[in-house]
Specification:
Layout lengths: L2 E6 L7 H16 L3 E6 L5 H12 L5 H8 L1 H16 L4 E3 L7 E3 L8 E4 L2 H8 L3 E5 L2 E4 L4 E3 L5 H11 L4 E6 L20 E3 H9 L7 H10 L3 E5 L15 E4 L1 H6 L9 E17 L4 H11 L7 E3 L7 E9 L3 H10 L1 H4 L4 E13 L9 H11 L6 E5 L2 E7 L3 H11 L6
Parallel strand pairs: 1-2, 1-9, 2-6, 3-6, 4-7, 9-11, 10-12
Antiparallel strand pairs: 4-5, 7-8, 11-12, 13-15, 13-16, 14-15, 16-18, 17-18
This protein binds adenosine-5'-diphosphate (ADP), aspartic acid and magnesium ion.
Length: about 425
């Protein structure tokens, strides 16, 4: 017998028929002799709908009230799944974030999990009851509802798995594993049987939304075994225990699996970035600190940064990217400080995309970036900014060229499936 946490995403939970299928998958897992807890997302599109209501209410809404609104999507699906399980004859109950509780800090809309009280849920599971837990939501120490940031149900699932010391955390979604790139963009993308925590972390952080970044770092830190697999399966599909999806493994495990490692593991695209350029900043110590200090203080993450060659003597242009969702705030903040920073113009562009190639093989191979730049240049795709890390190269391009760029690179690195 194993203890398994199963997580179902929005597409898997979208509507009565799909929830019924999820209930059957859960029932089968329990019938195989396992103790199970289930973490669910809101129905696909529901969180977007709720976010829109907040924006319409007030573009500068109170994040604490935003959390009250958006956490409701998962409350609905957790109750519904418990009902469907009961209809199949299973013992099941929902456990809302505040009931477990899932403790978080009070950074509303992007809260971090600090701990989960798992005794009650463990006792319930031990008695044969299926615990259904809404993802995405938690409870601050001020007693208020929090949410974990978009895609946060993955993190809820991994955190629950760590708290109940689960043998495995199965993330069921609308694709049957992690691919070399988004299979919706590149039909020739290949499914990976295994991917390391580190590679998955990089892929997630540069836009592969199949797993939320925090869920991967948490799994890595807590040593949670995570499998990504499809919920769109028939009753006679291979059991999840045979690992039909993609398993996230450690470096050591991967070596043991004796796989032919490709140089590049995956390619990701992220359209949720925006570019800001401040022109004619005086080229003096402290100028750049005056820009990024206030952004950091406002919790706005800056990703790519370029300080352009001074056009005029003593002046330089600074270009950087921020999350699209923070663009308006960043702009307002920088405009307020125009005189202190001392720039001429602020240019904002939200029509950009970041394309990244990731692979541990880069550590030992030169020329990965060169291949990327050449392949993009051959198709006339202009690069607006570049960043690199030990196992990743990212470029910023025009958003309209996203799909083309991903396909071109997938072919350039010889990753296309036959
Ligand atoms: P869920 O609602 O189940 O959480 P998401 O939409 O958050 O699902 O994530 C699954 C989606 O991630 C897939 O439908 C796919 O389009 C996208 N995706 C992006 N990159 C990849 C990748 N490398 N492998 C698999 N799926 C990917
Ligand atoms: N429902 C939330 C979202 O859409 C959380 C999740 O699905 O993981 O972001
Ligand atoms: Mg998701």
């Amino acid at each position: 017998m194993a203890r398994i946490v199963m997580k179902f995403g929005g597409t898997s939970m979208a509507g009565t028929e799909r929830i019924r299928r999820v209930a059957r998958i859960v029932q089968r897992q329990q019938a195989a002799g396992h103790e199970v807890a289930v973490v669910v997302s809101a129905m696909a599109g529901e969180t977007d709908r709720l976010v829109n209501f907040c924006r319409e209410a007030n573009p500068l809404y109170d994040p604490a009230e935003y959390d009250v609104v958006v956490a409701s999507g998962e409350q609905v699906t957790s109750g519904l799944l418990a009902m469907h399980l009961q209809a199949l004859g299973c013992k099941a109950r929902s456990w809302l974030g505040w009931q477990l509780p899932i403790h978080t800090d009070d950074a509303h809309a992007k809260a971090r999990i600090e701990g989960i009280d798992s005794e009650a849920v463990l006792a319930s599971m031990a008695s044969g009851e299926i615990a259904v837990i809404p993802g995405f939501q938690g409870l601050s120490d001020k007693g208020r509802v929090t949410t974990l940031g978009r895609g946060g149900s993955d993190t809820s699932a991994v955190a629950v798995a760590a708290a109940v010391k689960a043998d495995r955390c199965d993330i069921y979604t609308d694709v049957d594993g992690v691919y070399t790139t988004d299979p919706r963009i590149v039909a020739k993308a290949r499914k990976l049987k295994n991917v390391t925590y580190e590679e998955m972390l990089e892929l997630a952080s540069v836009g592969s939304k199949v797993l939320q970044t925090r869920s991967v770092s948490l799994a890595m830190k807590e040593g949670v075994r995570v499998q990504v697999l499809s919920s769109f399966i028939d009753d006679d599909a291979p059991a999840a225990d045979t690992i039909p999806g993609t398993m996230i493994v450690s470096d050591e495990e991967l070596e043991g699996l004796d796989m032919e490692r490709q140089l590049i593991t995956g390619i990701a695209a992220d359209k949720n970035e925006a570019k800001i350029t401040l022109t004619r900043i005086s080229d003096r110590p402290g100028a750049v600190a005056a820009i990024f200090g206030p952004l950091a203080a406002a919790n706005i993450n800056v990703d790519m940064i370029i300080q352009n060659i001074a056009k005029d003597k003593g002046e330089t242009d600074v270009t950087f990217t921020v999350p699209l969702a923070d663009l308006a705030r960043a702009q307002a903040l920088l405009e307020e400080r125009k005189d202190t920073i001392g720039y001429y113009r602020l240019l904002a562009n939200s029509k950009v995309a970041k394309i990244s190639v990731v692979g541990v093989g880069m550590r030992s191979h030169a020329g990965v970036a060169a291949t990327m730049f050449r392949a993009l240049a051959d198709r006339g795709i202009n690069i607006q900014a570049i960043t690199t890390s030990e196992i990743k190269v990212s470029v910023l391009i025009d958003e309209d060229e996203t799909e083309l760029a991903v396909r071109v690179l997938h072919t350039a690195y010889e990753m296309d499936a036959e």
